[in-house]
Write a structure and sequence with these properties.
Two copies of one chain form a homodimer. The first copy, chain A, is an alpha+beta fold. The first copy, chain A, folds into two domains: about 110 residues, Protein Yojf, Chain: A; about 100 residues, Trna Endonuclease, Chain: A, domain 1 (3-Layer(aba) Sandwich). Helix content of chain A is about 20%, strand content about 40%. Chain A contains four helices and 14 strands. In chain A, strands 1, 2, 3, 4, 5, 6, 7 and 8 form an eight-stranded antiparallel sheet that branches. Chain A has a five-stranded mixed sheet with strand order 10-11-12-13-14, with helices on both faces. In chain A, α3 runs parallel beside α4. The longest helix of chain A has 15 residues. Chain A is elongated. Chains A and B meet through β1, β2, β3, β5 and β8 of A and β1, β2, β3, β5 and β8 of B. β3 of chain A pairs antiparallel with β9 of chain B. Chain A binds a DNA duplex through β5, α3 and α4.
Chain lengths: ~250, ~250
DNA sequence: CGTGCCAGGTGCCAT
DNA sequence: ATGGCACTTGGCACG
């Protein structure tokens, strides 16, 4: 019996679903008219309305309204769930420590209470991430320019971590900042920070923003700062393997 | 009849729930053993497992595994749902245009099919955001320093938009970059970009990072760049009202 | 743990 | 639509 569900449950029914669901590490889903209070890093109030509530066995807690991809309120994994029973209503409370955050759902009317003892050992395989773009350029440095050689991947420098660090055919140090999508002002600032950092210890340093495209503002700032752009799209192929720290001595 | 649910539904039952749910603008929730394919900005595959699927009337589509706050796969609001019926299984397809993205869920076994015709007119009221911090400082500029006056809120400059722009008691232009939480390298880079921008047209410009705290790296970079820090925590009080563009002529 | 940074980020609001 | 940026960002990998 993987699943259990009760429409318009009595208070006893509801409490059964909750305790069985929690103790059996199931995913609990409740349709309810409710009100929500949150206090922690921020603070929020949500008045009465119909929502979908999900409680996962890892402590994740989601409250969804009828619109948007994002939950209106939530609690991250690791939070602890408990419930209080009052005269005519049940209150579900989720507490997170460090930072201390509490989420309180006042259930005014429950339309459906259910849980699923989910078995799932599969993990997502994702193609087209920046990590894959990095590996791709690492293996095919010529897509940046002829004679380009990679020295480091994910190299920590004074203020931050550089995606790729290499040398051009003239021996200049080259910093690459990769973006899997259209690069914006933030990306240019990031690249500029790395270039300025490295210029302090090494002579000339080139900075290249590598992305499928640029926003108008990014282009303006990039040109003003004497930085460069190479158009590269993230490859959508199966990730080969964990390409860890690659170090080629000093530089 | 706000809610409908069927445990271990027949294919006909399932199709009824889906079409009734979609046409009545309900939130549809399905517990199922399934497999998922996604292709769009990136590409992903997810093997067989038990998941919770949510389809919202605005086109939002969520697939949740038993862990994490984030859906393993999803589709944003505005996507269009349809379904294909095969011999022994149903396939739910969600398509987004611009960018073109498709999400396909192959339902191998459905444990529970349900929907809720949710009525909800309430919106979240949130306290402690950066916007509130901005309004707070706008109204109480002395929390930055004695004699500080605000000139602009959300002021667009050459490369970006400054949170707050003002003048100190000596007449120097002052840029404030606000963070509702511990400020990091990114915040410092952002502030530096604004300060450099304004220095080109105006004489001396001070940059102050306003946040509850700083990361170690942010502190180092901030000091090296001659920028300043003021410790301010975001206020958790009810938002007063929409404080729009505040312009005090030129500066 | 804190620091740094990506994300199929999402959402909001501006031009 | 594009742009610039915040978010209770979440999640991960590394020191």
């Amino acid at each position: 019996m993987k699943v259990k569900s009760i429409e318009n449950p009595s208070q006893e029914d509801l409490l059964n679903i909750l305790s069985e669901g929690l103790s059996s590490e199931a995913i609990i889903t409740i349709f309810a008219h409710c009100r929500v209070h949150y206090d922690g890093r921020a603070k929020s109030e949500l008045g009465n309305g119909d929502r979908v509530i999900i409680i996962k066995p890892d402590g994740s807690f989601l409250i969804h309204q009828r619109e948007k991809r994002e939950p209106v309120n939530w609690q991250p994994p690791g939070s602890r769930v408990s419930f209080q029973v009052e005269e005519d209503r049940v209150r579900i409370i989720s507490v997170r420590r460090k930072p201390r955050e509490t989420l309180e759902v006042e259930l005014l009317k429950v339309y459906l209470a259910s849980y699923l003892q989910a078995e799932d050992s599969e993990e997502l395989t994702l193609m087209g991430s920046e990590a894959e773009m990095r590996d791709y350029i690492f293996e095919n440095p010529e897509v940046i320019e002829e004679g380009f050689k990679v020295l480091f991947k994910e190299k920590p420098i004074k203020h931050g971590i550089v995606d790729l660090l290499g040398r051009d055919k003239d021996g200049n140090l080259v910093v690459l900042e990769l973006k899997r999508r259209r690069a914006d002002l933030h990306a240019v600032s990031q690249l500029k920070r790395y270039v300025e950092d490295l210029k302090e210890e090494h002579g000339n340093v080139r900075g290249i923003l590598v992305a499928p495209s640029l926003t108008s503002g990014a282009k303006k700032l990039l040109e003003k700062e004497g930085l460069e752009f190479r158009r590269v799209k993230p490859p959508k192929r199966e990730k080969a393997q964990r390409g860890k720290q690659k170090t080629l001595d000093s530089f």
